[in-house]
Structures are given as C-alpha cells and as structure tokens.
Design goal:
2-enoyl-CoA Hydratase, Chain A, domain 1; six-stranded mixed β-sheet; Enoyl-CoA_hydra/iso; enoyl-CoA hydratase activity; three-stranded mixed β-sheet; 43% helix; Enoyl-CoA hydratase; lyase; alpha/beta
Length: 276
C-alpha cells in the first residue's frame, strides 16, 4: 500500500502525502514512495513544475516513531553503521536530492508541519501556507539538536532558528512569512486553488530557463556554504541520537524493541514527533 498519490494537471505534477489517519506521519515506506514520486516527476518531460501537498487536516506530524525502519537493522541488530547509512539516505539524502531536481517545486502546507516534515518542505523552492499552518522542530526535548536536514538558519535566520529550537514552539504561518521561509499565506479553503494558480503560472515559463534560474540560486547558496553546513549539522545530529537514547529513551537506535521500551522506563511514550 502506498501512502503517496501522484497526479498530473497539465504541466504540473502533484505529489500528495496520503496517510491522514496518522497525520501523514512518515514511515519508511512513505519516504521511499515519496522519493519515487519525485524521481517520476523529474524525468517526465511534460512536467515543468512539482507541487508537494498533503491530504487531511495536517501536512505531516513528522517521523513515525512507532514504525522502526528495517534499514536500521543488520543481521537482526541495530548498528551505528547501519543506522547512520539509513538516515543518510532517507532523512538527509532524499532531502538534498529533492532540493536539486532541476524543476521548480512548491510545498503547499496546512495544519501542523512538525520536525521531519520540515525535511520534506524545505527542499522545495517555494512554500505556500494556509493561515492555520504551523511549523516546529521540537526534538530538542528528546535531547537531539534538530532535524536531519538542518536548514533552520538558512530558512529563518540565526536568531529565529535558535528560538524555534530552544523553545520547541511552533511558528505560525504569519511568523514564517515574516522570516522569509514562506512565500505566501492564504486562506485555508483557498490553499489548493492558490497553489495551483502559482504552479500553472510558473509552468508557462521556458523549462530550460527555469532550470538554470533554480541552479543559479542553489549554486549561490552552495558557494555561501549551505551544503557543507548541512552535512556538518547532520553529523552533529548524530551525537544527539546517543544523548537522547541515554537520557530519554528516544527509540531511533533501538528498532525492534517493544514500542518505546527504553523511553517508557523514563515515562516517555512518543507516538510521533508531534508528541515531543
């Protein structure tokens, strides 16, 4: 069963997260199917713009911590090497790959967008947010310094990034717009319409010109050090895993154990990152 819907509307590919009963929490299968959808849009010559959206009231509650990733295990056991390799691919590598697909992409966000959900929207070129959208990275509560694709500083500026991380507070759509993270804020019932209007407007432009414009901006960020900073922050994130495991029982390094077994001994029973 796939938790991703894929449709094409003219020159616009629409990729939808489709696990609304779990607030679109991301398990291994969803992430793999999501990457496949991105790649499908990337190689379709008739697609000029990609829209990423979600079904249900919320964009995504982040990682599904109740469904351990099979890739963490090697010969039935979790190892540092296997877990690091899995996260490098699924939580960091996917985001970097989506960011560099040579077609404009738009994230369309409603409701909660929490922690690992930022890994999914931040690689997009533009973000359209409903008025009820909120954005948060509460994993410092677990003893981790932030999500894997640590673009906070680039998306929000240093002081707002620190506020998001230090307080675990959700930023409203208006605050995200003020910080420059969001391009447009629209009424909830107009989100799909306004997003598609923007996507179709962009799709009228020359495809090669769009690809080169995107590359120019992304390369400018890279010259400024974005890629090196993201890699460095991802490695720092991994120190956080060990701290979290020791202090709160954050389960990412104990797949296959009883659900939240280590955390339950300390009174921590997160279902997904929204429970942080």
């Amino acid at each position: 069963m796939s938790y991703i819907d894929y449709q094409v509307d003219g020159a616009v590919a629409v990729i939808s997260l489709n696990r609304p009963e779990k607030r679109n929490a991301q398990d291994e299968s969803m992430l793999q199917d999501l990457d496949a959808a991105w790649q499908r849009a990337a190689i379709d010559d008739d697609v000029k713009v990609i829209v990423l959206r979600a079904n249900g009231n919320h964009f995504s509650a982040g990682h599904d911590l109740h469904t351990p990733a099979s890739g963490y295990l090697k010969e039935g056991k979790s190892t540092l090497e296997s877990a690091y390799a899995w996260e490098t691919e699924h939580y960091f590598g996917y985001s970097r790959r989506w960011r560099d697909i040579p077609k404009p992409s738009i994230a369309s966000v409603q409701g909660a967008c929490i922690a690992g959900a930022l890994n999914v929207i931040w690689p997009c070129d533009l973000i359209v947010a409903a008025e009820n959208a909120s954005f948060s990275d509460p994993v410092v509560k677990f003893g981790v310094g932030g999500i894997e694709y640590h673009a906070h500083t680039w998306e929000l500026g240093a002081r707002r990034a620190k506020e998001m991380l230090f307080t675990a507070r959700a930023f409203s759509a208006a605050e995200a717009f003020d910080a420059g993270m969001v391009n447009r804020v629209v009424a909830v019932d107009e989100l799909e319409e306004k997003t598609m209007e923007l996507a179709h407007e962009i799709s009228q432009m020359d495809a090669w010109g769009l690809a080169m414009a995107k590359r120019a901006v992304n390369q400018t960020l890279d010259v400024m050090g974005q890629q090196a900073a993201l890699q460095s922050a991802f490695d720092i994130h991994w120190h956080g895993h060990n701290n979290a495991l020791l202090r709160t029982g954050y389960p990412m390094l104990v797949p296959g154990a009883a659900p939240m077994q280590a955390g339950e001994a300390r009174g921590v029973t997160p279902r997904s990152e929204d429970s942080a």
